[in-house]
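*** Protein under study ***
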Amino acid sequence: MTRSYKTILVHCDASNSVARRLDVAAEMAARFDGHLIGVHPRPPFEAPVYLDAGSGFPIDDFFASYQKAVKADEAAASSAFAKAIKGKNFPTEWRVVDGYADVQMIVQARYADLAVIGQSEAEQKAATPTDLPEAVALATGRPVLVVPHIGVRRPPGKVVLLCWNASREAARAASDALPFLKAADKVIVLVVEPKTSAAGHGAEPGSDVATWLSRHGAKVVVRREPAPDSDVGAVILSRAADYDVDLIVMGIYGHSRMREMVLGGASRELLSSMTVPLLISH
C-alpha cells in the first residue's frame, strides 16, 4: 500500500503542454519529499514503407531528417525539465531512453510510486501515443496522475473526489491515492447508481470506504448520485465542477491488446473531457 510518493516519474516529450505537466510533477516532488525522474523516450527510426532498393528515394535523407527531429525534441524536453526544477530543493534525474514511448514508460513506471503523464491532445506529437496514460496504468500496477493539457488552477489534492463502486479497481485506486486522501482538506466519496449487495456495497453505499479512510485521518463525506441514461462519466465531471474538486481518483477497467485500448465508458469520458488532474489505477 502506497504511503508516500518517494519516486515520481514524469513523461517528458516535446508537446506544447509538457511545461504544465512538469510544474505539477515538480510541486508534488517538493510536497512529498520525493525524487523526480524526467523520462524522454526517443522513438526508433522507421523507414517509409514505400522505400526499397528500386524506389529512387535515398534512405539517408530520411534518416538525417529523423535524427534532426529526434535531437530537436530531446533538446526541447530537456530544456523544459531543467526550467521546471530550477531552484527546487529535491533530488532529480534526467533519463533519455530509446524505444517507443508506451513501452519505455511502462518499463520505467514499474520502479516508481507514481507516474505523471499528460492528457492526450488533438495535436499530439506522433511519438507520443494518444492512449499513453491508460496504457501505463493498465500495464504497470502503478498509479498514473494524468494532467490536463490545459494545465491546473491549483496544485491537486486540496479537494479530492473519489469515485467509488466497491470494485477491486476502485479499492486499488483509493489505496494508491492515500497520500493525497490523507492530506486533503476534503475527500468526497462519490457513489453513482449504487446497488446494494453482499459482494459489493453494503446497506449504506460508500460508508464502509469512508470509515476506512477516516481511520487514516482523511476528512470524508459521502455523496450518492443517480446517473440519468447511465452516463456515469458525465455525472462525475458535473459533480467535480459543483464541488470545486482539484483531483479525481478512479479505478479504470479494460485491457490493452495489439495496441487497441479497450476501456469502460466512464474512464474514456473522463480521460477525454477532464478539466482537473485524474489519478487512475488498475
